[in-house]
Amino acid sequence: MSFKVKANFVICFLCFTFHFVSGQNQKLADSLITLYKSGKYQGGEAAILSNIVENEKNPELKLEYSELLIKKASSDSLFNFLHTGYLQKGNALLYKGNYSLALESYFQSLNYAIRDDNEIGIGALNISIANTYSKTGNSNSAEIYYNKGIQLLRKINDSSRLARALVNMGDEYFNNKKYQSAMLYFDESAQIFKNINNSLGTAYNIGNMGMVYAIQGKDELAKSNLQEAITALEIHRDYSAITVYLTYLSDISLKQKDLNSALTHAERSLELAQEYGLKKEISDASLQLSEVYEMIGNSTKSLNYYKNYIKFRDSVNNIEKVREMANLQADFQVSQKQTEVDLLNKESEIQLLKDKRQRIIIYATVLALVLIFVLLFFLYRRYSFVKETNTIIEEEKNRSDTLLLNILPKETAQELKETGHVEAKKFESVTVLFTDFKDFTRSSADLSPERLVRSVDYYFSKFDGVMEKHGLEKIKTMGDAYMCTGGIHLNKEDHAIRMVHAAFEIVRITEEVKIKDQDNIMPYEIRVGINTGPVIAGVVGTQKFAYDIWGDTVNVAARMETNSETGRINISENTYELIKDEFECEYRGKMKVKNKGMMKMYYVNKPKLQPA
Description:
alpha+beta; Alpha-Beta Plaits; 8-stranded mixed beta sheet; two-stranded antiparallel sheet
């Protein structure tokens, strides 16, 4: 399954962390919905809504009825049903890819579980919170909550939930490429599922083991496991997992050059993901289809699916999202302490509320008088305000033109302003450079958001200066990755030479940070990869549009970076032929590159003549 890590072109395997609820029964959910709409049910409204959300598989319907349950439980102060409502709301949001909102719902549910001393609920919610952190790539937080949940579930001897938690912990180790540890957790959970005769859990175990076999290159064993898991999950109508397993099957078929099977599996995955509104799975399936059509040779469809991937790509690695989710965890801890204080001061709070209500009446009268005065004042200033606004509009127009030139090349920006769109163009000889910081995700987890942003901004601002100095074009940044080109609009024949000079300056910038304390900037090791060849360039998106390039040249450049070493500049044979007279290079031999076979690679050691 071909996915983008840090939004670059390095292909790797990702694990799918499954999340399902014990006892889900879609047929029961359908009949309960019909009964609820008829109004002829016995018992309380909250009880039937709780049964619906616990058995419904469709994330849209689960979210709709969870909201109804929360509203009903809130009005009647039914705290046990509030726990269920927020839990199932979180499940629905997790399926839909709204991770920060899912996490917020889970913490709300955990509050009510703790309030009711519900040990089973507390254990299960720790696992749900861990699942959410896992999907965002926050492995540290995920492991903390998995360990909390597993420890509690072992204590209360809840076999079913413990088995699912073990599978999820195995998935997390799979995410972190600890495959042996992952298989240990899968084996333990498989035995538990077998003992309790849980066919759904067994299906997930079979599928997850298939993913491990796929990453280990055991293609036939992987295909057998994945197909068996899909067949079992279709009975349970659990399409979220099926979409992931189908994408894995597509990737295996693509590797085996079975393009028809690769296309069939990827199209089925996308169809299911779109039907059930699974944003992450839509993104992954679109990316897989882009690669399949690239292998087929249909560049138009490949580009269209790549644009769809960009549209649905999850922003969970976005720094602001990480900060938001960290704040949710902190807010939850604070809320626990606040609850204790609230219980102690409840009597005095009621009296304070009565006093406050009286003050509000007085304040409202005064406020009304003030608002009348303010209204008269603004009417008086209206004429001058309109005049000043026209001036500001003109200034903002000039500012937007300047900002557009910072986002797009001059020729592209002009074409966009004149026609409202940009035609894709092909360039026959372009040099592409990728950089990536080693261990960025792991080391950044311990940094404050302020220091992380300051450090990344410091490096990329320096890199931008290098690009301007050498007449090169920055394309984009993706997390901690930096991508630039030479030879697109300033189409000089020496773009490969200028790019290598720029690469040496980028390496020197990172080395200087390690030697000098650069105002609390985090030192990183950097890898650099360069390739030269034809690309297609154009603008993707309609609102937050971006200038981007595509083609095999870009993929190879990304692979040059991943096969490089820290502090080294790794180049392809194409680039070597263009710069060998200017630089001393070290032949590395032929190295295996995924989907490309064996490729010659070279390290650039130093210029033969130092630049003036």
